[in-house]
Amino acid sequence: MDIRRPTCALAVLLVFCLTELAQCMNAKINFREKEKQILDQILGPGRYDARIRPSGINGTDGPAVVSVNIFVRSISKIDDVTMEYSVQLTFREQWLDERLKFNNLGGRLKYLTLTEANRVWMPDLFFSNEKEGHFHNIIMPNVYIRIFPNGNVLYSIRISLTLSCPMNLKLYPLDKQTCSLRMASYGWTTDDLVFLWKEGDPVQVVKNLHLPRFTLEKFLTDYCNSKTNTGEYSCLKVDLLFKREFSYYLIQIYIPCCMLVIVSWVSFWLDQGAVPARVSLGVTTLLTMATQSSGINASLPPVSYTKAIDVWTGVCLTFVFGALLEFALVNYASRSDMHRENLKKTRREMEAAASMDAASDLLDTDSNATFAMKPLMRAGVDSKMRQCEIHITSKPKNCCRLWMSKFPTRSKRIDVISRITFPLVFALFNLAYWSTYLFRDEDEEK
Q1: pTM score
Q2: What pLDDT digit, counting tens, does each position of 157-208 carry?
Q3: Do 301 and 81 form a contact (C-beta atoms < 8 A)?
Q4: Phi then psi for 130, rounded to 5 degrees?
Q5: Containing H/E element for 89?
Q6: What are phi and psi of 408, to 5 degrees?
Q7: In whole angstroms, how far apart are CA 316 and each of 30, 51, 53, 140, 329?
Q8: Would strands 64-79 and 193-197 be described as parallel, antiparallel, or unpaired?
């Protein structure tokens, strides 16, 4: 009888029983309880001190390295008057703290989650250009801390900030603005703490980001370490380049101003005797243009330099005012023409009266020879004058003078010249204005 068969059967049965026992034990493990035990073990009293910063790379005494990345959720407004902008973002920091290493139970525990930031050491980062800011606590505080088995710590929080953004409005509203987000260490110098942008993708922006009057063209990350009397502090910054949407200003400002200027030219086509119509048209367009200019400046800060919109509104206001002054000149020229016509009429009447007196004197004379010679002398003089007139008219006339001769009065000539001069000068101004501000160099813009 072979005694090896019962022995093999007993061994197989023993292995099967041990496997079933191990599976039963694994099924009864409470991993949440294990997390509590691990947290008590690594963060218990006397085991971890949150006041002490972590060691440097590879456990050295160098500075603790903190990687930073942000996710821009929304940009609510960009205010030109107060020169600030509001942004909501998810802010993340990651660093290595070897004191927080733990056993991951064979890969079953990927990380531990905390919601209390004061339980572990935290970098003392602050936003240097912040004006206002707040955390989000609905329904629960939007913050978490993840501790990984190798001691890596990930801190994530959702915050809303109002940040200062100094603007250069010389090219407004054809300008581009660069708004920065600066983050720096408040108390730890670069000997103890260094901030670095996370490799790969340090800044993410939500895809459907929408701004009412701006477009986010691009963003750049950089470092901005600062030195003070107390040492050098690590600093990070991200520059957001915004381009102002021009279509709004084209519809609300530029086209209405052009229309007001063109309306002011209507007075050139009205009769010079229509004084109430021309005066009311000029004054109305001038007041409307002045109101438009004041409304534009009311929505901007009182800066000391000239903006592009100031050049536009100033020139348009000058054209409207010039059209009003043109009517004053036309009115003066019209009265001058009337006075001149009255003088000519009076002179002609006086000459006619004098010629009649001379004719009567000739009829009353008794000398026939004298009566016969005077008409002959007058006829000779008249023939010479006609020859001079023919000689003068035979010279070629200038086209402009020939065209202007169709308008006998000076007031009418002023209106005709204004009909051509004002639109031509305004067109040249538009050509110079748009070529200057639309095709400017990037270096000049900076």
Answers
A1: 0.73
A2: 999 999 999 999 999 999 999 999 999 999 999 999 999 999 988 999 998 8
A3: yes
A4: -80, 140
A5: strand 84-96
A6: -70, -30
A7: 79, 66, 64, 57, 20
A8: parallel
